[in-house]
């Protein structure tokens, strides 16, 4: 996924903070899949400051992961080490009918979690419980409990970091010890401790399969051990290394990188000898409380928590590649319900409409790199509050001037600004495109305007009592039908795409403020904000399939909804969560509500079947996670 940085607001607690940074760095290393245009409605009552893109890659959903070296991109060189300890697992059984493996940030009660941090090898997930002095092992594919390891023999004393090297699991405890477990069975191999190891507040750990390195924030040192025996190899310390509260450590097998959060620097050490290679500390690196590291095979990424930025380094030379800093992106999100921001992508670029800044930001989809900020009077941007892409053009709805701006997707060049009374624009609330037509909802005139996508030419303005429009709040098109949500009438109007002809008005199925809508061609899904429910319709007939309102679904002021044909995703603005449903049955898959996912008044959502994108208006950020 792509990291577009910024952790807003006061600095959170350590575990949440490091988990957020972990996913930020994963964002940079992953090439995101195509995204469909966003389906959303609504806005939050917040003043915003920044942008974050965060996503779970292909390993599994992660629980409060603090260590970037557990990344997909940090595959470790493994060696087989003999087990010398005795197996003492404490196992707790749970039913095997877990609805779905929990995604990152979702705390499943009853499994012994307490201040969890985690590591995974793709088959199992190990959660180190700092508050419970235990380790919980889960099956990655199902989320089923394998075992809970606890007891004095394990030596857990405030587990603060965990890593797996393929064969063994290593747990560093802030109390001053390192526990080695056999990954396949959970059997205890050894507990390493004692003054010679210089463990003092161990806070981060990494391994290349041959050696293990532990960063000690208490005495500004790094302890290196032999992985096969647990024997001490060396303690790396001294003023020349520049260690100052080393809070993250990572290796590629040749070099070791250490982030010094108090020193605003990164130390590079030669793995084979422990010799210092360099200390990177120039102001040009942008280090400001560097608190997390990730390595993708060519580059080292450093998350700077106090400046809400990410520094990219060339791994082979330590040379600065870039500092990703939010101000250059021009993000400036709205705070009122009419001026709601949204996002669109054509698979190559991602476009953000910045309502408060009267601009559009364009990013490279594959890297998150800034391409341009489009602004200026010629573009006609005036409170741009919605945006859509048809693959060739970008369409921007300007609620402040009742106009639509069309841009060339490949270049960002202005094509035209559409305005004038003939278009019927008045209080633009939503824009959508099916690649042939562009549809614009105007709540001020209770109308829908249809445009030709290829030329921007006006096709028709649809209005009148027969259409049943009453403050049209959201719309979507599946290529055959257009579905329009009427907020004040608690109804949905269906139109034929080819002609704009009225098909039907569906009412008596929405109980309280229908505010968002999505269609996968077979079903239509409507989020009802006022009644904390979702209504499912059959697209071919408009018949009501079901109304979903069970409290277990976690629906809490659902403000946005999207469907990828397999799953339906609902953003709950008041619950700071996302509900996932099975499209074929409406059954609950999971409720994602972990604080580390960064959800803060989520009010826009989209999915392409591979990834899900959530816009958080409370924190001016975007979270991306795996749909599978």
Textual characterization of the structure:
- The protein starts with 13 loop residues before the first helix and ends with a strand.
- It has 1 helix and 48 strands.
- The chain has 628 residues and is mainly beta.
- Helix content is 3%, strand content 43%.
- It has a domain at 14-30 and 52-327: YVTN repeat-like/Quinoprotein amine dehydrogenase (Methylamine Dehydrogenase, Chain H, 7 Propeller), CATH 2.130.10.10.
Summarize the structure.
The chain has 628 residues and is mainly beta.
| Largest sheet features | 4 strands, antiparallel
Question: What structural class results from the helix and strand content?
Answer: mainly beta
Quote the beta fraction. Answer: 35-45%
Q: How many strand elements?
A: 48
**CATH uppermost class of the domain at 14-30 and 52-327:** Mainly Beta
Within the largest sheet, what's the order of strands? 1-46-47-48
Overall outline: elongated
Determine the number of helices (DSSP H or I, runs of at least 4 residues): 1
Radius of gyration: 26 Å
Mean of residue pLDDT values: 74
| Helix proportion | under 10%
What is the second-level CATH architecture of the domain at 14-30 and 52-327?
A: 7 Propeller
N- to C-terminal separation?
A: 14 Å
Let me know the CATH homologous superfamily of the domain at 14-30 and 52-327.
YVTN repeat-like/Quinoprotein amine dehydrogenase
Q: What low-confidence regions span 5 or more consecutive residues with pLDDT below 50?
A: 1-116, 331-341
Q: Give the CATH topology of the domain at 14-30 and 52-327.
A: Methylamine Dehydrogenase, Chain H
């Amino acid at each position: 996924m792509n990291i577009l940085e910024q952790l807003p607001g006061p600095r959170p607690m350590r575990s949440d903070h490091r988990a957020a940074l972990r996913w930020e760095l994963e964002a940079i290393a992953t090439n995101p899949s195509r995204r469909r245009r966003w389906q959303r409605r609504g806005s939050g009552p917040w003043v915003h400051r920044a942008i974050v893109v965060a996503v779970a890659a292909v390993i599994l959903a992660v629980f409060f992961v603090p260590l970037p070296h557990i990344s997909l991109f940090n595959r470790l060189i493994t060696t087989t080490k003999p087990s010398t300890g005795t197996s003492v697992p404490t196992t707790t059984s749970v039913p095997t009918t877990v609805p779905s493996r929990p995604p990152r940030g979702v705390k499943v009660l009853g499994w012994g979690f307490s201040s969890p941090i985690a590591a995974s090898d793709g088959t199992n997930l190990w959660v180190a419980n700092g508050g419970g002095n235990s380790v919980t092992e889960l099956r990655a594919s199902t989320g089923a409990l394998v075992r809970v390891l606890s007891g004095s023999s394990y030596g857990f004393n405030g587990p603060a970091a965990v890593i797996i090297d393929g064969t063994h699991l290593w747990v560093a405890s802030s109390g001053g010890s390192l526990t080695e477990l056999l990954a396949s069975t959970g059997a205890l191999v050894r507990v390493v401790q004692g003054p010679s190891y210089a463990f003092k507040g161990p806070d981060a750990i990494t391994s290349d399969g041959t050696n293990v390195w532990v960063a000690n924030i208490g005495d500004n040192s790094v302890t290196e051990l032999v992985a096969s025996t647990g024997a001490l190899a060396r303690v790396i310390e001294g003023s020349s290394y520049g260690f100052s509260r080393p809070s993250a450590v990572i290796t590629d097998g040749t070099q070791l990188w250490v982030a010094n959060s108090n020193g605003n620097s990164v130390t590079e050490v030669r793995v084979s000898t422990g010799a210092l290679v360099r200390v990177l500390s120039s102001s040009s690196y942008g280090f400001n409380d560097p608190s997390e590291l990730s390595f993708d095979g060519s580059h080292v990424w450093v998350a700077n928590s106090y400046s809400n930025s990410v520094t990219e380094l060339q791994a082979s030379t330590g040379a600065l590649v870039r500092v990703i800093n939010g101000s250059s992106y021009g993000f400036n999100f709205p705070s009122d319900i009419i001026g709601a921001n949204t996002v669109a992508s054509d698979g190559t670029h991602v476009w953000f409409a910045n309502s408060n800044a009267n601009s559009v930001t364009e990013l490279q989809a594959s890297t998150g790199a800034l391409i341009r900020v489009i602004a200026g009077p010629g573009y006609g941007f005036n409170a741009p509050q919605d945006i859509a892409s048809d693959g060739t053009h970008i369409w921007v709805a300007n609620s402040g001037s009742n106009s639509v701006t069309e841009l060339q997707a490949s270049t960002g060049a202005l094509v035209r600004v559409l305005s004038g009374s003939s278009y019927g624009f008045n209080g633009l609330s939503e824009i959508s495109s099916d690649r042939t037509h562009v549809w614009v909802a105007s709540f001020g005139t209770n109308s829908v305007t249809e445009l030709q996508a290829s030329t921007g030419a006006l096709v028709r303005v649809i209005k009148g009592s027969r259409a049943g429009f009453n403050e049209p709040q959201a719309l979507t098109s599946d290529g055959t039908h257009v579905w329009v949500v009427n907020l004040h009438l608690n109804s949905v109007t269906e139109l034929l795409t080819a002609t704009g002809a009225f098909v039907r008005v569906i009412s008596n199925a929405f109980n309280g403020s229908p505010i968002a809508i999505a269609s996968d061609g077979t079903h239509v899904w409507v989020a009802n904000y006022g009644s904390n429910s979702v209504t499912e319709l059959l697209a071919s007939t408009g018949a009501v399939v079901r109304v979903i309102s069970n409290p277990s679904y976690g629906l809490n002021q659902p403000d946005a909804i999207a469907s990828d044909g397999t799953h339906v995703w609902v953003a709950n603005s008041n619950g700071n969560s996302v509900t996932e449903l099975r499209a074929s049955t409406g059954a609950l898959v999971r409720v994602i509500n972990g604080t580390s996912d960064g959800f803060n008044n989520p009010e826009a959502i989209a999915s392409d079947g591979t990834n899900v994108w959530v816009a958080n208006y409370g924190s001016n950020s975007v979270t991306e996670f795996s749909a599978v």
